[in-house]
Amino acid sequence: MAATKDRVIKLENGILTIDIEPLSLLQLLEKYGTGKEGFYHKVWWFDEDFAKDVPEPGIYEIKIKRPTRSFKEGEDESNMPKGWDFPHPAIIAQAILQYYQKTGKRLLGDWWTRSSLTNCNNRHVYIGNFMLYNGLSVDYRWDDYLFSGLGVAPFRKIP
């Protein structure tokens, strides 16, 4: 694992507080690589605009809790807590990989969170499924697809 400054502040009551660097998914791929400690080896998203998008740095809180039921695209929007939003894909990826690097524990090991960005076909990007034998996956889904592992890990920036 690559050596980095400890940016994980805490995980308490299902909320991860983390100091996010201004890194895109492509920059995170370069930093963490592929394999079981980085990204899943099938990286289809090299040329996608969302992969180059850099989030605003700062302290973020992310609700890390596995969904209790399946969602279709759009259903999760009505369940969003006030003041929270869908996570930027690079923020959720960075949080998962940094937390793993610090603790050896995998967040979103058997589920996905919808992100705030879309791919070139206007489908929302999903991040998760960070299992022992794979790396962190990046994928997308169709709006009407009922997906048993789909949830939302909402986030907010701390002023």
SS elements, strand count? 8
Main β-sheet description: 4 strands, antiparallel
Q: Which regions contain 5 or more consecutive residues with pLDDT less than 50?
A: none
Summing up helix and strand content along with how strands pair, one would put the structural category as: alpha+beta
| Average pLDDT level | 86
Tally of separate helices: 3
Strand content range: 15-25%
Order of helices and strands: EEHHEHEEEEE
Q: Largest beta sheet: what is the strand line-up?
A: 1-2-3-8
Helix coverage percent:
10-25%
- What integer value in Å does the Rg equal? 14 Å
Write up what this structure looks like.
The chain has 159 residues and is an alpha+beta fold. 17% of the residues lie in helices and 24% in strands. The chain contains 3 helices and 8 strands, in the order E-E-H-H-E-H-E-E-E-E-E. The protein has a 4-stranded antiparallel sheet, covered by helices on one side. A 4-stranded mixed sheet has the order 6-5-4-7. Strand 4 and strand 5 form a beta hairpin. The longest helix has 15 residues. The protein is globular and about 35 Å long. The protein starts with 7 loop residues before the first strand and ends with a strand.
